[in-house]
Amino acid sequence: MTNTSAALAVLRKDLRLEVRTGQSTIALFALSLLIMVVLVFALDPKPRERFDAGAGALWVALIFAGVLGATRALVAESESGCIRALALSPIDPAALYAAKLASALIFMAVAEAAAVGLIVLFFNLDVGPQLARVALPVVLGTLGFSALATLLAAISSRTRAGDLMLPLLAVPMFIPALIAGVKASGALLAGAGFSEVGKWIGILVAFDALFVTLGALLFEYVIGEE
Length: 226
Prior knowledge:
Layout: H1 3-21, H2 23-43, H3 50-80, H4 82-88, H5 93-122, H6 129-133, H7 135-156, H8 162-189, H9 198-224
């Protein structure tokens, strides 16, 4: 079995389990709805502030969905010993990491699709080219946070307080990319061009490269430790 086919097999297994139970999808959607309701009442944005407020709310939902999605993808397997069995199998650890990363990405994409719809509704945004352009920073942010959260979830799942440790580890490390994502998304929603947010997009790309590379290199040692 090649690394690609092995990674696809692990990914299919994760998705099949989710289709049977639906726990992660329901939890992520409910979390996105709760975040939007809380933030829209807490911020009460004025018409001129709705772009920045909507961008901030979207990225808050992204962070929480990423934490929950990465945790669901690894904690259950860690408790059952499945992740240890996969580590001892002939599967390349980088391929296993890619499968878990893809699983977290899919879970986050479901939550973000719901979050975008709720943002348009709650923050009175127009559905048009400006909203579509936000897809670039959101996709970059999703990839970077999924890569980071998947690696840290593998680490935190080996501790007693793993569910608490993951956000404490992931969020501070992601803050520079989070700032860049909020700035880029808010500017694009307000009508700015990509040339005006180039530096923020560059930061997101750099963090994506860093987190994905670190995850692929370190995942073997994280899941292989006793």
